[in-house]
Amino acid sequence: MTEKTNSNNNEENADVSTDVVETTQAKVSDEATSVKSTDSAFTLVRHDNGIAHLVIDVVGENVNTLKAEFAEQINAVLADIKADKSITGIVLCSGKKDSFVAGADINMLDACQSREEVVALSRQGQRIFSLLEQLPIPIVAAIDGTCLGGGLELAMACHARVCSDNPKTALGLPEVQLGLLPGSGGTQRLPKLVGLQKSLDMMLTGKQLRAKQALKSGLVDDVVPSSVLLNVAEQLAISLQKRGKSQAKRKQGLMDKLLENNAVGRNIVYQQAQKTVLAKTQGNYPAPAKIIDCIRTGIEFSPENGYKLEAEHFADLVMSDESAQLRQLFFATTAMKKEQGVADVMPTKIAKAGVLGGGLMGGGIAFVTATKANIPVRVKDISHKGISQALKYSYQILNKKVKRRFLLNSEMQKQLAMITGSVEYTGFKALDIVVEAVFEELTLKQNMVAEVEAHGNDKTIFASNTSSLPIGKIAAKAKRPENVIGLHYFSPVDKMPLVEIIPHDKTSDQTISNTVAFAKKQGKTPIVVKDKAGFYVNRILAPYMNEAAILLLAGEPIDKIDKALVKFGFPVGPMQLLDEVGIDVGAKIGPILQADLGDRFSPPAAFDKLLADGRLGKKARKGFYQYQKNSFAKTLLNRFKGIKSGHKLVDDTIYSLLSVKPMGSLSAAEISKRCTYMMLNEAARCVDEGIVRNARDGDIGAIFGIGFPPFLGGPLRYIDKIGAKSVVAQLSQWAEQHGERYTPCAALVTMAENDESYYA
């Protein structure tokens, strides 16, 4: 999610005497005077050289966010500046550590009761930033740390921008991730600074630029160390004052000139952007199309028309259900970051970690531990080859960042040095946590517990990355069962944000809190779930996948099923997902769920034929889709048929293997509804059984774990939207037509009868 209002580490932010602030304060004591009302977020610090510092420091907040009530404060400061003829230039800077301005306060949007209120709010922001832009003296933004959303819109309204090379410096407009667009002039100013194509890329993806990327794109004028940031910004202000605020024109490459300097070329860019957006969003997210519309209007007609349309589109999006759900998701994840694993049980520091197994999962876990959590990690494997694989995993990811100039080679070497390996248990005595990522075999995992207990210390946590085996069984022979817990990651570990934390009945509260804190340091969103078959994510996923398989066996084509669910909002369809995860993995989980939870989890018997045929999915280059490289002749034939390069093709031989005639009689809406309602039904059961702590965790788990459409808010919020009565009626109808697997759970029936919902 966007970082617009995320707070940094509280300890770091408690002391706002940052380098920037210290420099400003030193100048204040030596040669300056400052003016600030007690409750204002803005301080004007005058200096003898004629350059004043306008310091933004929101009272009582860890980071700066823009609020509606700041309008009067800014107007007052601007009036002071205009009245004081001794001020010849302004440096706009922050009084917060590692934060320029993190964005607008999203609560401000939720407080708006009507579209007209939002339009007025947007126009107010545009008007204030225009006043900055129209100042008769130069104003330079000195950016150190996060500069996102409204913060970047503020910086772009200045006449120039200088940023620090602080690793935490990031510039971007991530509003699209909340179903919004920049509403204070961002859609009009960004294209002028970085060009049409770059601005579309940034706003349509929410992409953040690091300092050097921002300099290369033309978003900032210079990049310097934090220690000299204010001095350089002052010199730039003096330089601008002497040459009349004129800015150097953006450098354009040949392709930019061909596409951006004429109406025909720009039209091609707009059309391609719209085509790409539609392919990615399936029309489920209105914000990207409105962003393109705002940019196009400002460039092709006039900035005045662009600003007006920006405010109107911004208001439409704020009032939309899609943005409301995305904002609720943002608030939920923000709240979770502040929660302990167990209330009132403070986590103790985890200084060193270990990983058992150097495979794909083990390598990924080692990577996020070393690079995200900044915790040294020891990988233990039975062979040196396994250790090499784990090290290679991290090297490949980091090396890509170096090649893209996102990371210095020296920093890559430093991060790689955090990961060490051994075929013995050397060094495990000093480890605070060991994450097991070996094969899904109970006896093997129990042996791992015993070995870690023998070679670790009395407090070493044993965290199992099992996807299906009960943690209680893994801990059954443990000497210290209170230290054993489940820590279920999702593949690929470096990209998937969710982890499930599964305590068994003897896991200590301290172990739970420590493990939750460890996962957060790795950059993960943890949900604590009950130790029952399938935990939460796999349990709600299984009925969804089984239903897709049943529809396939009934004659619905593979690609039709997948396209229906992608259109609904999932990132990939169920058949492609099964190929990605591994058909054999799905086959192992099914019987475990069936044994503990009943026949509704019984996997289709015909799928045994897939395993017998060696169809394990993508890893075996044989599954529902083709993975073999096409010959030159085959590629030409595909192009002749209109099949794009890189487009996945169904392996048609699977139909004869399964004795299926892919005729297809259901609509895409019916397919997506039948699969999705199976997931809704199971999610309701999980909340009722206490598998997840609450509906919020259930929704976050589904969105971050399996890609449930974020714009729907999660399966439980989606039930609220449809209404429990409607869900129960539909499931009951299907139960009569197609079998008892559709029978609505008791919790849903009770909700329908009492007209209840999960959220107020």
Q: Uncertain runs with pLDDT below 50, 5 residues or more?
A: 1-31
State the CATH superfamily name of the largest domain. 2-enoyl-CoA Hydratase, Chain A, domain 1
CATH topology-level fold name of the largest domain:
2-enoyl-CoA Hydratase, Chain A, domain 1
What's the overall average pLDDT, rounded?
A: 91
- Tell me the helix content: 40-55%
Number of strands: 19
Provide a count of the helices.
33
Shape: globular
CATH architecture tag of the largest domain: Alpha-Beta Complex
* Residue fraction in strands: 5-15%
Strand order of the largest sheet: 14-13-12-15-16-17-18-19
Can you offer a commentary on this structure?
- By secondary structure, the protein is α/β, with parallel strands linked by helices.
- It has three domains: 10-243 and 252-318, 2-enoyl-CoA Hydratase, Chain A, domain 1 (Alpha-Beta Complex); 353-528, 3-Layer(aba) Sandwich (Rossmann fold); 537-754, N-(1-d-carboxylethyl)-l-norvaline Dehydrogenase, domain 2.
- 50% of the residues lie in helices and 11% in strands.
- The strands form three sheets. It has an eight-stranded mixed sheet with strand order 14-13-12-15-16-17-18-19, with helices on both faces. Strands 1-2-3-4-6-8-11 form a seven-stranded mixed sheet, with helices on both faces. A four-stranded mixed sheet has the order 5-7-9-10.
- Helix 3 (70-83) packs parallel to helix 5 (115-133), helix 6 (150-156) crosses helix 7 (186-194) and helix 8 (196-205) packs antiparallel against helix 13.
- The model is unreliable at 1-31 (pLDDT under 50).
